[in-house]
Amino acid sequence: MTREDILDAAAQVFRIKGFHGASMADIAEVVKLQKASLYYHVTSKQDILLSLLDRALDMLTERISIISARSIPSDEKLRLMIRSYLQALAENPDLSSVLLFEHRSLDKKSQLRHVPNRDRFEALWREAVQEGMRTKKFNCPDVNMAVRALMGTLNWTLTWYRPAGSQTIEQIADEYTDLFFNGLSSR
To answer: Is 20 helix (H, G, I), strand (E, B) or coil?
Structure first.
């Protein structure tokens, strides 16, 4: 049994029961350990939550920063970022759920450590939109608002997306991108 196995199990338990509804005994049961043995690998439920949030943001930041660093037109870059982000959420539903819905359960000390990581990730999105503004690909009066709207839309997808549904995650990503770029206007 490794710490990584415990984190995987905790993400699953948190996704099903929520952070506050989950207990260390629930996590121990999934990994078939005694609750006391769990503390050999982790110090607390907060420790687990922060580790999961770090893991999720590290994975997402790595994926998105690779695209962000590419020398391609900003609209193509943002399209690829949206697609990659939704693919990552869909491929890691337990971890994604913890990132998107349980971050509010962090205590103050853990929040102070988490927020800079989150801000670095969100900055990649702002930079992509700002690049589009500089190159006249985008017309956006408030970059922060645009990024918040985009992230809100992408993040909410996790609540309704089903892998066996009528659209693939890539099709959904492409539709979102078209909607984001073109709006609802019939022009």
So the answer is: coil
User: For the chain, how far is it from start to end, CA to CA, in angstroms?
Assistant: 58
Residue that is written with structure tokens 């920063």 in the block:
65
pTM over 0.90: yes
Angular region, 18: left φ>0, alpha ψ -120 to 50, beta rest: left
Give the domain range for residue 151.
45-182
Contact 25, 109 (CB under 8 A): no
Q: Domain total for the chain? A: 1
Element (DSSP H or E) covering residue 133: helix 108-134
Asked if residue 60 belongs to a domain, the reply is yes
- Quote the tokens at residue 167: 């659209």
Query: Residue 92 falls within a domain, yes or no?
Result: yes
| CB-neighbour burial class of residue 179 (10 A; exposed 0-12, middle 13-18, buried 19+) | exposed
The residue with tokens 């350990």 is: 33
**pLDDT tens, residue by residue, 99-134:** 999 999 999 999 999 999 999 999 999 999 999 999
Asked if 37 and 28 touch (Cβ cutoff 8 Å), the reply is yes
Token pair in block for residue 3? 């710490």
CA distance 157 to 167: 12
